[in-house]
Amino acid sequence: MVGQSIEGGRPVAHTLYLGGGTPSLLTPGQVETLLAACHRHFSLPPGAEISLEANPGTVDLDRLRRLREIGVNRLSLGVQSAQAADLKLFKRIHSFADAVDAFQAVRRAGYDNISIDLIYGAPGQTPAGWEDTLNRILDWEPEHVSLYSLSIEEDTPLERQIEQGVLDAPDPDRAADMYEQAQERLSKAGFQQYELSNWARPGHECQHNRQYWLNEPYLGLGAGAYGTFGGLRYWNVEAVGAYIERISQAREGRFPPSPAAEDCETIDQNLAMVETMILGLRLTAEGVRKERFARRFGREIDAVFGETITRLAAQNLLTDDGQSVRLTRRAYLISNRVLVHFIGNED
Fold this sequence. Notes:
three-stranded antiparallel beta sheet; seven-stranded mixed beta sheet; about 40% helix; Arc Repressor Mutant, subunit A; single chain; 3 domains; alpha/beta
């Protein structure tokens, strides 16, 4: 997450997120090298959110303490489920007992900002098993919970098992029931839903990911990373070897994208306005603020999308209080079908 301002000759970066793959497999020394490089080239304010994704079974207390010492202050733990059958289906290498041990180690290492990732809507998952998973996780008292509906990617073992009839296809109605089940349970536990897939205790919303939903610039560094900056969206080559080769042989050039970029596209104002609506409406409590939209684009949101907003509000899918436009709770489960209405509807 990076801003346009310059401090001490370096651009200001507001947050840092080490994710994708399993960065917890890196040694603390390797993470320290990465953080040192970021500090050399960017100015991060004191207390900036620095997150690292970790899988149970890849962390221990000594490693976690060292990561805390070098600046990592937020851990995102990929637990996924408390049910053994689910973890087997997801091809996870850890058991739930491993996840318990990992969470306890993270706490003992001094972290007070921990996020838990869970998956719902998978073949064979039951409401009872999902309730048990939620209860077990909430017993830990984490600060943040992210819930993701299982998506079946092309050319994966899961897709082939479904095609062969070994597994049932995910049931969208059951997934919807599980989503609402989680909404109720998390609310009772004191969590606030601030984005369609994310819940947090007050003050622990993920600041890095909020940058995406506000459609603000961010730099993607590393193989397969995406980023947007300076009116461009770019994506780097996915193969690690190719990424290293491009970076090691590169000379200074235009930025962005880096020499490792596979391609890029220009984001003109019309596309930026559409994406601001589609991404911003995912922020369930905040929505798209009209004043921020007008300040950024020099146009009132009603002049650009007024007809679409009015039509969706009449269907009880959006609310417009004059300050912000937000999804209604009814629209959460069909958000993609709602948000698509903004594509091509800019004035």
